[in-house]
C-alpha cells in the first residue's frame, strides 16, 4: 500500500524502490507527479518535522526511508539562485508549531485552537523581505542536521514525468502487408547533409550503391517482396549528394550531385523502365551539399554547395535567380521559414544565418559548437529555430529565437550519445518534433512549447529489433488516418525493407473526431503562388483544410485542454538531466516489470486523465 506523507505547507505528497512525489493543488491538474528512485527497497518511510529542514538550502521536505540495513534521508530542495544566502520566504509559509494548542479536555469540550507557528523557520530573518536581503547568514541555528548533500548516502534520484499531452504517443509499424521487402544494394553511406531517403504520398526514392549514381523508386501502392532481378532505376550518372521530392508534384524528384542538379520526372504509375533523361539540368560550379524546395511557391529550389554559396533556382526556366554568400565553411543544413519569406542556414563555422533571399542582408548569430553536423527546422509558427547538434559527445537540441539570433540559445536539452546527427521532422499542427539519426534504432519525440520548459519529452519509438533505421521520411499530414488518431506517418527504411510507421495517440472514444489534436491543416501539397510571383515580392499562404471526415462527429463537449502549468512540481523539486531521467525511469520499470519487453511508460503510471485516453 502506498504510504502518503503530506507536507501541508507546500502541498507535496510522498507516496518499494520508487517513491512517488506529487504536488497536490486545489485546481487543475490537482496532482503533478514525479518519481524518486531509491537504491534499495523500502521497509518504511517517515517524514522529518518541518522545523528540522535546512531552510537556507531551500529544502522543503525530507523523508527518511528505512531499508533492510539503513535509514536513508531523501531531501527535496527547490533549485534557487541565491540558495544558501537568502531566506526564500515564499517557500515557507508559517508552519504549525510544536507546542500543544490545548489540552485533551479542552478539545473534548469543543475547543478548536490552532497550534501557532513557533517560527524557528524564520528565525534568521523573519519577514518576506528577508529573501531580498543578501546579508542573512546562518541557516537554522538550532543544531539540526544539515540536509544530505546530493550523492551522499542517499542515492535518491528524482525523475520528472513529462507533462505534454503527447507524452503517451505510440509509434506503430503497420502490418507486414504494407511493407516493401527484399530491398537490396542501398547506399548507406550518403553524406551527412543528405537524409538518405525521401518519400511523398506516392513514392520513396533511395540512392543505390550501384555504379552510375542509380536511384531506386518504390511505389507505395505496390507493397510486397521485390523480385531478385535488378529493378528499373533512375540513372543519375553521378553519385547522389542529396535528393528531394517537389512538394507540389509527386512525380518530380530533384537530385543534387557533383556540379549539377538534375530534375527527374517519374512516369505515372512508377518506373517501368530505367530513366536516363532528366527533365532539367541546373548547372552549378561545385559539388552540392543539399537542396530544398520552397514550401509555398512552385518551381523554386535552393541549393548549398562546396563553393560555400547558396543559390536560388527558378525551375520554370532553369535559371539561377539569386546567389547568397557569407558562409565561411560547410553548410550543414538549410530550412525555409513556414511563411516562405526567410531561409535559415546552420554552418560549420559555428553560425546560424537567417537570409531574406529576396534581399541580401543576413543577420547572424552563434550556433552550436562542433564540427560534427547539425540540422535546423523552424518551430512555433516561425518564432523559434530548433537546431539539432552536438554538445561535445552528446547529441543536443537547441532553441534560438529567429528574430533575435544574437542573443544565443533560449533553451537546450541533451538527448543521448551517438555519432549521427539527429534529423528533425516538425509537425506544425501539434508542435511535436520527431528526431532520429541514420543507423539509430530509436525515434526521439518532443513537444516544443513556446515558453518554459520549451522541450517536453514524449515516449520515444524504438524500431523492432534488429532493425536499424537507415532513414525515416515523413509523409504529408493528409496521409494520417484520423480514425486511428494518427498525428504523423512516416516511411522507415531499414537495410532491406520500407515499412510505414504511424505515430498515434491512445484515445478511448475513437469513434469521435479528436478535434483537439487536429486543427485545420495547411494544404502544403498545393502551391500558394508561382516562383515568378514570389520573386516579384508576392507572398502566399496555404489554404487550410479540416481533417474531419464527413461522417465523423467532433468529440462530445470539446473540453478545453487542461490549463497547462509549466511549473508543476518541478518548481519545487530539483531536476535531473534527461539522460538520467530516462535511465532511471527505465531501470525502475525493468525492476518493476521483470523482463517485459520495452514496456510503455503509461503502463506503469496511474492517474492518467480519462480524456487523455
Ligand atoms: C554512396 O553515395 C556516396 C555519396 O554520394 C558516395 O560517395 C559513395 O561512393 C556511394 N557508395 C557506393 C557504394 O556507391
Ligand atoms: C554542454 O555540456 C556541458 C557539460 O556536459 C554542460 O555544462 C552545458 O550546459 C551543455 N550545454 C548546453 C548548451 O546544453
UniProtKB/TrEMBL annotation:
Pfam families named among the record's database cross-references: DUF1899 (PF08953), WD40 (PF00400), WD40_4 (PF16300)
All copies of domain DUF1899, residue ranges: 159-224
WD repeats: from-to residues: 281-323, 324-356
Hydrolase recorded as keyword: no
Annotated Low complexity bias: 115-146
Subcellular location: Cytoplasm
PROSITE patterns in the record: WD_REPEATS_1 (PS00678), WD_REPEATS_2 (PS50082), WD_REPEATS_REGION (PS50294)
PANTHER family for this protein: CORONIN, CORONIN-7
Family that this chain belongs to: Belongs to the WD repeat coronin family.
Protein name, UniProt field: Coronin
Source organism of the structure: Hippocampus comes (Tiger tail seahorse)
